[in-house]
Amino acid sequence: xxxxxxxxxxxxxxxxxxxxxxxxxxxxxxxxxxxxxxxxxxxxxxxxxxxxxxxxxxxxxxxxxxxxxxxxxxxxxxxxxxxxxxxxxxxxxxxxxxxxxxxxxxxxxxxxxxxxxxxxxxxxxxxxxxxxxxxxxxxxxxxxxxxxxxxxxxxxxxxxxxxxxxxxxxxxxxxxxxxxxxxxxxxxxxxxxxxxxxxxxxxxxxxxxxxxxxxxxxxxxxxxxxxxxxxxxxxxxxxxxxxxxxxxxxxxxxxxxxxxxxxxxxxxxxxxxxxxxxxxxxxxxxxxxxxxxxxxxx
Length: 298
Prior knowledge:
The protein contains 9 helices and 10 strands. The chain is of the alpha+beta class and 298 residues long.
């Protein structure tokens, strides 16, 4: 069995052996809608960390996402017996299923999920360079506007660090809701996770409350966080949110940069070409300069 470089799902640069990465599990999309970054593959927005093992998978994997994502995959996976080719058509079983089996089953094209009212869906994953993702999250801000409660335009911006600062306040709010006797407040907490009358943590609530059918359902982040707070596991809830918000911010960046979630291609290639990427960056910058100049003329 040969070795090859993985392809970063964010930059399309090569990922070499031992390089730190974030790993996102993916489910193949079954709808024909190409409006969003999730047009072809639906990401589970809770990643985990690993080092690329040179054979398509990870090693030294760590992070809270492993437990939650593997539990989700295990619950919905389609069990398979050994096929005609015992070297590649491997058995896939819930019993004993974990990260090693996840990487192996994906590599052999044998990992499928099926939950209630859904068809069988192919499961895969994408790796992204940890250094690049961290640099992006440390520098990029979301800038937007919305109508406030007085129906006036409100301009705002925030970054990943702002969301991290919101986590303790958000968890405290959940705890207060859980301790409340107000059934309506509790119902709203479980139904969409957002309280429009409270502006203190509105940005984090927009992320947690925006889990839709376009994303993988391996991890129900909102309800899982509520359960953890209910069981006085605030530290674990905060850690789960920290990783989820990385994925959620990345997805918004993907939407703005017109990037689709997908497994890395070029499996088998050991290319470490950089000139082509550098040329592409240069011509994109030139295109942006031209477009902005044209816009200023009007």
